[in-house]
Amino acid sequence: MKTNRRNFLKSASIAGAGAVTGGFLQGCSSKEPVTNLHQILEATRKAHTQRFNMSGYAAPPLPVVKVGFIGLGDRGSGAVQRLSYIEGVEIRALGDLREAAVKGSQHYLERIGRPPALEFYGNEEIWKKLVELPDLDLIYICTPWVWHATMSAYAMEQGKHVACEVPLVRTIDEAWLLVETSEKTRKHCMMLENCCYDFFELLTLNMARNGFFGDIIHGEGAYIHNLLGMNFNKPDDSRQSDGAYTGMWRLKENATRNGNLYPTHGLGPIAQIMNINRGDRMEYLTSMSTNDFTMQFREKELVEQDPFYESWKNAKFRGNFNTTLIRTVLGKTIKIQHDVSSSQPYSRIHLVKGTKGMAVKYPQQKIALGEDWLKDEDLKEIWDKYTPEIIKRVGEMARKVGGHGGMDFIMDWRLIDCLRNGLPLDQDVYDGVLWSSIAPLSEWSVANRSQSIDVPDFTCGSWKTNKPHGINLETGGTTQVLEVKREKESMQLNVR
Ligand SMILES: NC(=O)c1ccc[n+]([C@@H]2O[C@H](COP(=O)([O-])OP(=O)(O)OC[C@H]3O[C@@H](n4cnc5c(N)ncnc54)[C@H](O)[C@@H]3O)[C@@H](O)[C@H]2O)c1
């Protein structure tokens, strides 16, 4: 990378094209001329040359992985518990804005007989002190979305690998920042897309790799989960609650942006099956949203009942249901849907369609060969034949440890096993930023009557030669699962 892409962005904004750094790719509240965005994306692409290919990159092995956590709310506290079951993990530091959150995870470590971790809490910037600790290998980030890119970039600059919750970035500018930083520092930057490790998703990935579906031609994914009540859940001192999402950060996202804000759960497993960034790449997308038919009414009800909600009065919420269509360079299509505010059973769809067969996960797992759905007894044979090695190795234990039925644990175990054995990670920085960037691109398309928009090639052409990642543990797989005194199961089945 000979960049100076960041300087380029500065001059682009001076020249009047300034939306990249702070405007439409972030919020898309105003309509920008379509040509403007295309010019900016094109110039950004030209300004970036890959400095080092992080796809397939194997960092030096770390027999002991010393971990610091930032963000110990719902998700982060569960991650501390899961990692405590994995051989070779030392939980060295705990960080959160809130003292109670840090103390909660510290007490957990105490109860299971682990050494105390260093504590960092009290203000919005204290996490930097944690990241600067010299003796940490991995920073595990579970904060609200606005912090992900800043924290990840700083952690890599401080010589740490990064594992960060979804989505990894909110803007295209943040995406390039992480690509550049990962390439420059040669530190892993993995987005924790746990749905890639769910049982049916891994099964269909292995089936695709073994040609069951023929050539893959189309995939569908979604994040459809009614979070209306949780998003409007307010902090309540009398119950010592900071709200379902601390400080209502998730409602803020839904009140300031309009598009598919959370694309990665549905998209990640499909992108892996299609070998995106590893033989194919996303070329362009188009996106369309409905109006908001629920959130504005909930807001009005709540404003009438409770003065707390006054600050949300007349907020302009995103359209409830978004559909985004992506076309790849090899001529395949992906449909991704998103709705967190109207009533419907939970779904990530996960539909894989090839020239010979297809599979779909929601509302019910089904697999077809030719024009017929397979019968239940045939499905058993499919599971016997195509269950990948990673599930055979840790699937049962993962179900016991929990975390969305086990997939969270499979993901964490695999991450740690790769770091301990010096193996490339399954999801590299290019995957994380690409899957996340569907959000700002969809925002732009929605704001511009669904006009199509190019998807940046964050691999700078290396997608042509990058190799698919392994799920059959040809190497590695040596990390044991520890016996830990069992905490009460926070078995949350639907991914949030
Ligand atoms: N992969 C999944 O299945 C899944 C499920 C749930 C949440 N998530 C993701 O996990 C992340 C956290 O979600 P959550 O539900 O745990 O939210 P949460 O509100 O329960 O927790 C967020 C935590 O971050 C802390 N925080 C905020 N700003 C901070 C700062 N500057 N420094 C340190 N700590 C800070 C908050 O105090 C809080 O404890 C989000 O990115 C979300 O999208 C992923």
Task: Describe what you observe in this structure.
There is one protein chain. A 9-stranded mixed β-sheet has the order 14-13-12-11-7-10-9-8-15. The protein has a 6-stranded parallel β-sheet with strand order 3-2-1-4-5-6, sandwiched between helices. It has 17 helices and 15 strands. The chain has a domain at 195-388 and 426-462: Dihydrodipicolinate Reductase, domain 2, CATH 3.30.360.10. It has 496 residues and is an alpha/beta fold. Helix 4 links the parallel strand 1 and strand 2 (89-96). The chain binds nicotinamide-adenine-dinucleotide (NAD). The site of nicotinamide-adenine-dinucleotide (NAD) has 28 residues, from helix 4, strand 2 and helix 7.
Quick summary of this structure?
The chain has 496 residues and is of the alpha/beta class. The chain has a domain at 195-388 and 426-462: Dihydrodipicolinate Reductase, domain 2 (2-Layer Sandwich), CATH 3.30.360.10.
Describe the SSE topology.
Layout: H1 5-17, H2 19-22, H3 34-47, E1 65-70, H4 74-83, E2 89-96, H5 99-111, E3 118-121, H6 127-132, E4 138-141, H7 145-157, E5 161-164, H8 172-185, E6 189-191, H9 199-209, E7 216-224, H10 228-231, H11 249-256, H12 264-273, E8 282-289, H13 295-305, E9 322-328, E10 333-339, E11 351-354, E12 357-360, E13 366-369, E14 372-373, H14 376-386, H15 389-401, H16 407-421, H17 429-447, E15 453-454
Parallel strand pairs: 1-2, 1-4, 2-3, 4-5, 5-6, 7-10
Antiparallel strand pairs: 7-11, 8-9, 8-15, 9-10, 11-12, 12-13, 13-14
Helix pairs in contact: 1-3, 7-8, 8-17, 9-12, 12-17, 15-16
Residues 70-76, 95-98, 101, 124, 127, 142-145, 147, 165-166, 192, 194, 245-246, 404, 495-496 line the site of nicotinamide-adenine-dinucleotide.
